[in-house]
Design brief:
The chain is 14% helix and 30% strand. By secondary structure, it is of the alpha+beta class. An eight-stranded antiparallel β-barrel has the order 1-2-7-5-6-4-3-8. A hairpin with a 2-residue loop joins strand 1 and strand 2. The N and C termini lie far apart (32 Å). The N terminus is likely disordered.
Length: 173
């Protein structure tokens, strides 16, 4: 499933790049129709040291993968608020094309836009056709169905050393 999502994501990105502003073809979502909320999974690790960065806007969060702790802030969009309501949560993430980590959500979130097309390293985005969240850590092109949820506020280079498949725990700071 993870490989097919990566291929779909790569195909959609290539189609967008080649076709200019055309929308990607309709795709099948993989969210379970019987799941209505993101289930939190208890963390098997002890609490990590608190990051020293403070945020003044949005919802400050930490993303923990093993002993790596990343700080981020969720914005005030409806989709980010929906996600924040599920925290704390542990989700499986996989590396895609050496530029991003993606996780599929078990159920869609409220998506009211605005869609955004200026993707930057450090962005946390919701990709509504596949009900997935992406953490972008390298330069990339955009897909027109992204909604920015927030951004990483700490060093992005830590993503390069994470395994290709990794569970990440996201919680409020």
């Amino acid at each position: 499933m993870k490989k097919s999502l990566a291929l779909i994501s790569l195909a959609a990105t290539a189609a967008i790049a080649l076709a200019g502003c055309s929308a990607p073809a309709a795709e099948t979502t993989t969210a379970s129709p019987t799941t209505t909320a993101i289930a939190a999974t208890p963390s098997a690790t002890t609490d990590s040291p608190a990051p020293t960065e403070a945020s003044t806007d949005g919802t400050p969060i930490t993303i923990t993968a093993g002993d790596v702790v990343v700080t981020a802030t969720l914005n005030d969009s409806q989709v980010a608020q929906d996600f924040a309501a599920t925290l704390p949560v542990t989700l499986p993430w996989f590396r895609n094309a050496g530029i991003e980590y993606i996780t599929e959500l078990p159920a869609p979130m409220t998506e009211t836009g605005p869609f955004y097309t200026d993707v930057q390293p450090g962005d946390i985005v919701y990709y509504n056709p596949l009900d997935s969240i992406t953490i972008i850590y390298e330069e990339t092109s955009s897909v027109p169905t992204l909604t920015k949820m927030g951004e990483i506020t700490s060093d992005l280079s830590v993503f390069e050393s994470l395994p290709n498949d990794v569970d990440m725990r996201i919680e409020r700071r």
